[in-house]
Amino acid sequence: MDMNNSVLNNIADPHELERMYRKDPKTFKTSFSYAWEQHPDSQVLGVWYERLHFEETAKTNKPSLFQQSFLFMGLLAILAGISTRIIFHFVEQEAIAPVNLAFGIIPFIVAYFVYSNTPKRSIIYSLTALLIISVVYLNLLPLNYSDSIILAYLHLPIFLWILVGLAFTGDGYSKGSRRISYIKFNLEYGILYASMAVSGMLLAALTMRLFSFVGLNIEDFYFSNIVLFGAAALAIVAAYLVVSMNLKLAKNITPYLAKIFSPLVLITLLVYLVTVIWVGNNPFLDRNFLIAFNGILLGVLVVTIFSITERDSDKKKNISDYINVALIVLALIIDSVALSAIVFRLSSFGITPNRFAVLGINILIWVNLIWIMFSYMRFLQNKSELSAIQDAVTKYLPVYGLWAAFVIFTFPIIFN
Known about the structure:
The protein is mainly α. Helix content is 79%, strand content 0%.
């Protein structure tokens, strides 16, 4: 069979072996089996053997339902559901602010990341202390919903997001690759959680409909006990699935989402800005329009960051890079207009918590966009690698966390 064995005849031609495999995998595997029996010491055949048999090995190593990590995740999911339900009870009684619901979920996600990627003790102590300080401090604030307190509540998710990122990255928190992984995790997590949440809502609707047929209205009970518990527990389950199960669907879809949404956002934004100029809206005088401007700015920033992080570093420059640069330039224009409008309003109407907070976040975003734009321009001029752009994204993330902490812990005191 040696004379007719296609694998043996082309053992020195990797390109031909790859072509044969892609053309007819079944025939290739048959020829390969014989070739491997005759030459088990061949390095080329050894590589192909691992490639052809890797899937079978991977299947045997799939996590068991009774593995420790799965059981720990299940325990955390149950605790998150119970904690969220207890917190919701006090929210209903108006004893605490609704923002406390975040503490029914976030600490357990942090605990799971710490368990799966155990960092040094200083990081564990820091995470624990910051979570405890946050929950105690926020519940010492009066429930009067003044501007400064509402701003503290609005900035809490940013602060907690940074804490979750610290738990996710662990000892590699200073490494750009770990921070990039965390940003990618967020997009995959969002897709997975949304998919499972839609399925849960369909189940909830079906359940309530079935009970309505027998004359029972279970909406209030079902939401307060089942839906709330399930939503909190699902947050932990989704984190486990993304991190531990290596879901190919989520990983394969996120780069395409970035490629599709970047040009769509750019076109939509251009049309919107032209319409705004045509209509004659003025962000300097119209407060609601200024808020909308800042919302657009944050959306563009998020889309740009995901587009950069989802870009394959091995690929050459393409149209997506130029779309990203156009988005960054457009975002800089919007941010510059917004900054001018905020400064005008501050000088004309005085300092308020809202104006000061918007000024701060706009300055932070403006600096970040400038850094990203210059890094991108150097990349397009072949003066730097893609990693320089990603560094401009990842190294700046803690700044947003520090600003959020500043607003949370100082605004209610400064503006009383």
